[in-house]
Amino acid sequence: MSGTTIILAMDDDSEAIRINQILSSSNYHPLTVLNWKNSQWEKINWEKKNQLLISDNSTPDLVDSTTLDLNSVDLILIDDELKDNTYFKPILKELNNSNSAKSIPVILITSNSDCNDTEGIDLKENEIYLSRPFHNRELLLTFEIAFYKKNMGIALKKSEDKYRSLIENADDPIAMINYHGEFLLVNKSAALFFGCEEEQFRGKTMWEIFPKKHADSQMKNIRTVIETGKSHIFESVTLIRGEEYYFSTNIQPMPVKSGEPGAVQLIARDITPLKKVQNALEKSEEKFREVFNNANDGISLHYVDNGLPGKFCEVNDVVCQRLGYTREELLLMSPKEIINQETKEKMPEVMEKLNFDGRATFEAVQITKNGKLITTEISNHLFNLQGKEMIMSITRDISERKKSENQLLRILAGIEGTEDSIGIAMPDGSHFYQNQSFNKLFDYSIEELNTPMGPVKLFKDKELGRYIFQTIMNGNSWDGELEMTDKSARIFPAYIQANAIKNKNNRVIGLIYVLNDITERKRVEYALKTSEEKFRNLAQTAVDAIIIIDSEEKIVFSNSSLERIFDYREEEILGEYLDTLIPQRHMEDFQVKLDFFHQHDREMGNVFESFGLRKDGSEFPLEMSLNTWKAEGDVYTTFIIRDITQRKLNEFKMKMRGDIFQLMSQNIEEVFWIIDPLTGQIIYMSPSYQKIWGQTIETLYQSPRSWIESIHSDDKDKFISYIFGKNGRTIQHREKVECRVLRPDGEVRWIKVRAFPVINQNKEIYRRIGIATDISNIKDIEKAR
């Protein structure tokens, strides 16, 4: 090894010569040797292998020990007896200093007695002992070991420097902590988190830096790693300068010297932004999951498969409860498997509208797991999710409403389709209602007759008209034939039956009368057509809006339908109070209803009606279903809002006409019935049936043919043929018939029967309607003449 400088300090010149010869014949030639002689260093440049202390100069160079540059020395080989020498001791002390410029190996040559029982080469910490006597090979091997240790030390120092540079420049906080929680080292990134310098961590423990709860938790993980010797990665939250931080921490065990407490290297990655986003997503998902599963309506998501509804991918609790399936069962099914055949036939048309408009609302009949049929109103919305077409369906059970509507429609069809002219007035005689037949018969509007005793103008004999009205106002009834006049002054004979409408306290609250033009029958088809056109779109509703409010009643969420219904964009309405959507004059009533649902434990189905306020200031009626739920320590309320303007208009019309029909059927003396032409079953029979037939309506429904069996045998065929339309005559020739009724008490009553068919838009007979008038008194008078 050329260029090597060695300090050789030997008392014995012959041993020094031998060592020089061994080294000169090896790879360490030529050597520059500083030899200790006469209490001073001599620098010898060797050129001859077998000469010692002989240089190329006559006089060796002297080196002052006080100015000796250890950085130029590569190895020291001394006699063990010289290590305590007054001049040599400071050099060894400087070599042992950890801050020395470089690591210089030291070889001490000892006698056997000095090494006790040890022979050969002995490694003790930073020094290498070579015992006498030694062979050439042992000396060279010792040199090899010494330089190997030196090179390893240099490599280790470089590695440590790189490691320290890596730690100091790392973006992640890095610290070394021992078993007792003491900080051995922190890098700049860790110090920056605490707003201080690295030096300020020296001597401090985990409990001085972190709150006790967090320090205890982290030290538990640190000690586990030290005790097991296995690395561990965990996530934790801690407080730093009063703020919450989330870290993903990698704890690795560190090598330590024997007897020292164990330590770890801790690399903490700040995942606070990621954790906040993750927490926000989890809270958002939790919030929408609450909305989804706590909605009062059924909500489902399903794929689109070849232009038709595919399998469900999500359903809420309402759908499961309503249909009787578990969520797992429904997720293996599609909407086509829970609807009847009639609804299936609608699906292509519904999907066409859905693809064109993105939304479609329709009525469907769903089939539960046990086979029950449920009439529903479904609002569908088409959207894309991760490149796939999906449909969200909001389903509302309208079975009860549909049943009421169908019953009311049947009654209204009967009223509006009858040839009898029906009018209703207030107690002072002001007209309140008149059916289509009345309008066509007299050509007067309700407004023209809506004055006290206004309908008197319909009578040719005005005095008789006033008498009849006064009789009814006094709570009595009147019936008979007389002459009437229409708006064009046409006079025609008519039969009228008039009655007072009374409340439960027997107080007159209205007047009702039924008139028949007995000179000509009005065609029924026109009235039916008008009626059908008027009511065919009765049950249409808008696509629902959904909003969520917090405990302060501020809107924190709204869907796109809110803009369509209220004209507010999402950015305009978020953060606004709920009363932005409610008219001020309805706010008190709305708040009472809202407080009621908040204060009571209500089940699903919290639906109430109120009024909405659009952005332009216009008001409209609405139906709300609401549910209250808790999240993040706050109380939220979900509203599903439906614009019911059209329904309210239809309900008002139907309720008014339904009340009219009920009042008419309960107060007129004539018997009124509706028959299904296909089955011959009675759909409706008015309460007056019992007065003429002498039997209850319950008895009639238990024995449907009892009313026909009560007809006198001589009149039965004529009666059956007439009411069921079996005589083949046209409507124009179907005049009234007179028949006898044999009552159970033996009394015989004469009735005059008028019957006619009701035709639908397909010109098919939809219903058969009949009216029976008791003419026994007239017959008795005729018999007496």
Q: Given the helix and strand composition, which structural class is it? A: alpha+beta
Number of domains: 6
Write down how many β-strands occur, each being a DSSP E stretch of 2 or more residues. Answer: 33
Order of adjacent strands in the largest pleated sheet: 4-3-2-1-5-6-8-7
Q: Specify the overall morphology.
A: rod-shaped
**Segments where pLDDT lies below 50 for 5+ residues?**
46-66, 113-119, 522-542, 728-733
Give the biggest beta sheet.
Answer: 8 strands, mixed
The CATH architecture of the largest domain can be given as 3-Layer(aba) Sandwich
CATH class of the largest domain: Alpha Beta
Number of helices: 24
Radius of gyration over alpha carbons?
54 Å
Secondary-structure topology with pairs:
Elements lengths: L3 E6 L3 H12 L6 E7 L2 E6 L15 E3 L11 E5 L9 H8 L9 E5 L10 E4 L2 E5 L4 H34 L4 E5 L4 E4 L1 H7 L11 H4 L2 H17 L3 E9 L2 E12 L8 E8 L1 H23 L3 E8 L2 E8 L1 H7 L3 H4 L10 H17 L1 E9 L5 E13 L2 E10 L1 H19 L3 E5 L5 E4 L1 H7 L3 H4 L12 H12 L4 E8 L5 E12 L5 E10 L6 H12 L9 E5 L5 E4 L2 H6 L3 H4 L10 H16 L7 E7 L5 E13 L2 E10 L1 H23 L3 E5 L6 E4 L3 H5 L3 H6 L3 H4 L3 H11 L13 E6 L5 E12 L5 E10 L1 H9 L1
Helix pairs in contact: 11-15, 11-19
